[in-house]
Amino acid sequence: MRIEENRVLGPLTTLGIGGPARWFAEAASEEDVAEAAAWAGERGKELFVLGGGSNLLVSDAGFGGLVLRVALRGITPIDGADEPETRVYQTGAGEDWDGFVERAIEDNCAGIECLAGIPGTAGGTPVQNVGAYGQEVASAIERVRAFDLKHHVFVEFAGAECGFAYRRSRFNTADRGRYVVTRVDYRLAPGGAPTVRYADLQKALAERGAEAALPSLSEVAAAVRQVRQAKGMLLVEGEADCRSAGSFFKNPVVSEELVKAIAAAGGKEPPRFPAGAGQESAGRVKIPAAWLIEHAGFSKGYRKGSAGISSRHTLALVNLGGATADDVLALAREIGTAVERRFGIGLEMEPVCIGF
Predict the structure, then answer these.
(1) Which of 87, 143, 145, 167 is catalytic?
(2) Where in the sequence of the chain do the CATH 3.30.43.10 domains occur?
(3) Are residues 118 and 132 in contact, defined by beta-carbon separation less than 8 angstroms?
C-alpha cells in the first residue's frame, strides 16, 4: 500500500474545502486497512477514515495524521434460508451508496428506496444512521464488519448492537474513532412495498403521475431524487448549490412542551415529526432545523463572504467559490447563535470536522 504525503483533501469533499493530509493512503482490501492502522500506530499518528467526503469539513490547515480512504468494493446478495422473504446484501464499505440503492431497486428489493440520491459510501451509512423521507439504514442493517483500532482485530456487530438512534450510532458516539467499517450487510425485502410517508414525497409522486395507491420502488426513488434536487441536496455537476455537505445542522429533538412554548411566544407553532424509536425519544419530537433558521431571520441565498446558505434550502451551507473552512464555521456560528437566542435551542452540526 502506497503512503502519499501532503495530499490536498478539499477536492475529495463535496464542500471542496480543506488543506492537505500529512499522509494519505487508499485501502482496497481489509489487509490494507490493517496495514494502515499498524503504520499509523507505530508512528503515533492519528488515523482518520475518509469515505465519500460528503459529510465532512476539513480545516484550512489540513490534517496532521494519516487519512485512510476506504475503497473496498463488492456487492454480494444472499437469499435468507431462514427468512426466504428477505435478501441480505454484503456490501463493501467503499461502494457508492446511491449506486447500491439503484442496484437494490433493480433487484426489486425494498427498504432503502427513500435514501436514493444521498452522496457518500456504504461504509458511512451506519456511522450516522443515514436517513431521509421516512427511512433510516438502522431498519435495514443486518451486520457491520469493522477493524478495531484498539485491539487490532476484525469484529462484527449485529444491527441491534450498533446503538442506532436519530443520526447516531456507537460509531460516532461512545466508540467514535475506534472502528474502521469495512463491510455493511443490509437485509432488504424482495418484492416489498415502498415507504411513502412524507408529504413532499407524496406530492412529487403525484406530479410525476405515479400510481397513488402503490408506486414502484423506482418511481419512489426518482421522486426522492426530484425532491432532493429541488432542495439543492442532489449532487449535480455545475450547480453552485451542490458545493455543500448536505444538511449542515441536525433537526433538534425536543419535548412537546418546548414546541408549545415556541408557539406561545411567537404565535406560530413549528412543524414537527416523530422523533423515532428508542427510549431517549419517548415523548419527544423533531423540529425542522430549517424552520428554526428561517424564523431566526435567515433566508435562502443569505451569504457571509464566500460562504452562504443554499438558494434552495436553508439547511445547507454552501461554498460560493473560494470559501475557507473558517468562513463556513463563522456562518454556522452566526446561525446557531441567532437560533439559540430566538428559541433557546442549540443547533448541532451534522458534518464531521477534522484538523481543527
Answers:
(1) 167
(2) 4-70
(3) yes
Alpha carbon distance 12, 22 (integer Å): 15
Q: Nine-digit cell at 308?
A: 452562504
Helix, strand, coil shares of the chain, percent, nearest 5, are 30, 30, 40
- Mean pLDDT on 33-46: 97
Domain 240-342, CATH = 3.90.78.10
Is residue 350 annotated as a catalytic residue, yes or no?
A: yes
Among 95, 113, 142, 350, the one annotated catalytic: 350
Return the amino acid letter for 61: A
Residue 167 appears among annotated catalytic residues: yes
Q: Which class in CATH covers the domain with range 4-70?
A: alpha beta
- Name the catalytic one among 247, 284, 310, 312: 247
pLDDT in tens, 72-121: 999 999 986 667 789 999 999 999 999 999 999 999 999 999 999 999 99
Could you tell me where in the chain the CATH 3.30.465.10 domains are found?
75-230
Distance CA 296, CA 339 (A): 5
pTM of the full structure: 0.88
Contact 52, 120 (CB under 8 A): yes
The CATH fold assigned to 75-230 is: 3.30.465
Tell me whether strands 352-354 and 56-58 are parallel, antiparallel or unpaired: parallel
Beta partners for 187? Answer: 88
Q: Note the pLDDT tens digit of each residue in 287-315.
A: 999 999 999 999 999 999 999 999 999 99
